[in-house]
Amino acid sequence: MFLPIENLLKKNIIEAIQKLYETSINDQQIQLQKTKTEFKGDYTLVVFPLLRISKKSPDITAAEIGNFLKNQMSEIESFEIIKGFLNFSLTEKFWLETLQNISQIENYGKLSQENPKHIAVEFSSPNTNKPLHLGHIRNNLLGWSVAEILKTAGFQVTKVNLINDRGIHICKSMLAWEKWGNNETPELTGMKGDHLIGKYYVKFDAAYKNEISRFESQGLTKQEAENQAGIILEAREMLKKWENQDPHTRETWEKMNCWVYKGFEETYKKLGIDFDRIYYESEMYLKGKEIILESLGKANIRRNTDNSVSIDLTADGLDEKILLRSDGTCVYITQDIGTAIERYNELNFDKLIYVVGNEQDYHFQVLFLILKKLNFQWANQLFHLSYGMVELPEGKMKSREGTVVDADDLIEKMIETACEKTQESGKLSDISEEEKQEIYRIIGLGALKYFILKIEPKKNILFNPRESIDFNGNTGTFIQYTYVRIKSIFRKITEQNVSVKPNFSLSISISQKEKDLVKLLYEFPAKISEAAENYSPSIIANYVYDLSREYNQFYNDHSVLNEKNKELQAFRVMLSRQTANTLSLGLRLLGIETLEKM
Questions:
Q1: Domain 5-90, what fold?
Q2: pTM attached to this predicted model
Q3: The domain at 407-589 falls in which architecture?
């Protein structure tokens, strides 16, 4: 690939400092950035850090460096000095050559690394006591997109799912089904398996709350009522039976989990989510228990008078954490310890990214610290990609109270909304009903994915389905429509047998809009690198929106096929093709499909 202009500028700035001031510096000491839009120029050198070397004023230092570079580099057309900032403008020929160069690169934007690190990305991690909901959608879309961006940035990536298929929460659904289910099955009810099990999780919570309320009315404290309620005691007893391999409990557990797995698979398929490796907590938790029991008496791990096992982290500014309950059963942190160990032994990762909501920030702080105290050196390679919550206009969702938005229902709602909005716009009048349904699906899911991923991960999201589908706003629909607009140009070239030159002369003159579009295309690999470094698909999402907006402004001001100057027409066709290719890859990194018509 051609040498990035930033690297070339830095190389020549280093040479300028050496020759002008007889001092050696490295590129880390050079502050080079894109010129702000309110100023003339393409790149800006911040001069102030160099004054200790030049021993001269900002303007004189900037002028000396600017003149040196102007004489050295044919790519520089002019420079301007504004209060200690040196702004370079690159030649029109440079940007024309840039378009020619990037258009010849297959999979432009994709990066390679000499010795790629192996990064495991764990996401999804659903519980088998309820269906996937809107919160899970953000998790899945974020985790999948981060993994794809890392792959495109040249890393070796393994997409991992840990299914939480055991524990007290699973026993709650199982117990409620055994009490009130009358042997209901997905086949008998026509419900997806995960929805059926979720119904009984809600039933358990309602019954539990009734018991707590009754005990409180008899004078017990809330905590006493929560601990003495008969239904929770039954659930805890069921968990002990499960851990002791009770045949009936295990049989019920396997049957109900199978219903849920099938439901999950359907939802993953709708969302376009896949994994390289799936782990199950039921296969992992004993490893954590074994490690903790082996570590008794070490790293402040001790057995308490009630027979529970805990670790004292107060010296590290945290609290005392229970690792095994008094009845010997595992807690979440214990099974996560075992899972991390097993995963490192199997994958030998250089980094493991946990994609989990910010309500679990403390959990991962504790987990990573415990693993370090247990002397696992790779604990420093663990990272929690913490993200904000997804809320609806009416407030926060609660699984136990049944106030969540199920993923399947939301997907259907998005497709319906896409249908309504598209019909309102008067598009798609000349295609079959089957084609329309597929287009509605792609628009609806594209809108959902873009709305979720355009927000920086750490921020909360207020989700409104109707706002996410707009042919003119900052939406996935607008970007998909821009791609369709460009593809229509190439359909017309074929249909009308338009003769277009394969290349263009470097002596043509182009407008500022055209130059701005080339500059944006040039930035694509850097955006992928930035998104990979920050684990943030929002960088790609906002980039493809900016590119779409820039292309539409170009399209409104310039003719492509009707341009009489054949050299300029060839340039605009190449510019359009490269924009379409870049949008296609950018959208793919977000899991969004493109369309030929809409």
A1: Gyrase A; domain 2 (3.30.1360)
A2: 0.92
A3: Orthogonal Bundle (1.10)
Closest by Cα among 521, 539, 520 to 529 = 539
Looking at 3.40.50.620, 2.40.10.10, 3.40.1190.10, 1.20.1510.10, the CATH number of the domain 123-391 comes to: 3.40.50.620
Judge whether 5-90 and 407-589 match in fold. no
The CA-based dihedral angle spanning residues 443, 444, 445, 448, taken in that order and rounded to the nearest 10 degrees? 120
Q: Where are the domains of the chain?
A: 5-90, 123-391, 407-589
And the tokens for 199?
């119904």
Strand partners, 462: 391
Which segments of 281-381 are extended strands (E)? 301-303, 309-312, 320-324, 351-357
Torsion of CA 564, 567, 573, 579, to 10 degrees: -130
The closest of 490, 586, 521, 595 to 104, measured between CA atoms, is 521
**Cα 37-41-44 angle, rounded to 5 deg:** 90
Q: Which two tokens stand for residue 517?
A: 């579009």
Assign 3-class secondary structure to 507-575: CCCCCHHHHHHHHHHHCHHHHHHHHHHHCCHHHHHHHHHHHHHHHHHHHHHCCCCCCCCHHHHHHHHHH
pLDDT in tens, the chain (598 residues): 456 899 999 999 999 999 999 999 998 999 999 999 899 999 999 999 999 999 999 999 999 999 999 999 999 999 999 999 999 999 999 999 999 999 999 999 999 999 999 999 999 999 999 999 888 999 999 999 999 999 999 999 999 999 999 989 999 999 999 999 999 999 999 999 999 999 999 999 999 999 999 999 999 999 999 999 999 999 999 999 999 999 999 999 999 999 999 999 999 999 999 999 999 989 888 899 999 999 999 999 999 999 999 999 999 999 999 999 998 888 889 989 999 999 999 999 999 999 999 999 999 999 999 999 999 999 999 999 999 998 777 655 444 444 568 899 999 999 998 998 888 777 777 788 899 999 999 999 999 999 999 999 999 998 877 777 777 789 999 999 999 999 999 999 999 998 999 999 999 999 999 999 999 999 999 999 999 999 999 999 999 999 999 999 999 999 999 999 999 999 999 999 999 999 999 999 999 999 998 8
